[in-house]
Amino acid sequence: MDITAFDLAQRFVGIHEVEGIASNPLILGMLRLDDDWPQSDAVPWCSAFVNFIAWELRLPRSKSLAAKSWLTVGRPINLEEAVPQNDVVILTRAGGGHVAFFAGFTTDTVMLLGGNQHDAVDIAEFPRANIVGVRRLA
Prior knowledge:
Elements: H1 5-10, H2 25-32, H3 46-56, E1 75-76, E2 87-93, E3 96-105, E4 109-117, E5 120-127, E6 131-136
Antiparallel strand pairs: 1-6, 2-3, 2-6, 3-4, 4-5
């Protein structure tokens, strides 16, 4: 049985930041896989989550905590080609960017499974107009 990035990412739904001065050790581990500066889970960690899942499955990864670093990883595809397997969507948003695994779309929105969505791993909707890239990792 081949497990996809989306399959593995689903297993982490519900993992969330810890309020206050404590941090979730799993999120810190994801962050420190590619950089040693994060001291808490109160930093942007969407790219860390995608990198962690890709690392676990030996898929191409950005090795960066910057969401837009994913624009150079894998193969570019159109959103209409995307499937909930190994496809990631990169967005622009206030304060930077966001990256997560493709979960589906509607006419105006894209549904993404990712980290740092409401301070947790969950599925959330984003405007399609914010998409700057879709990449297939495998």
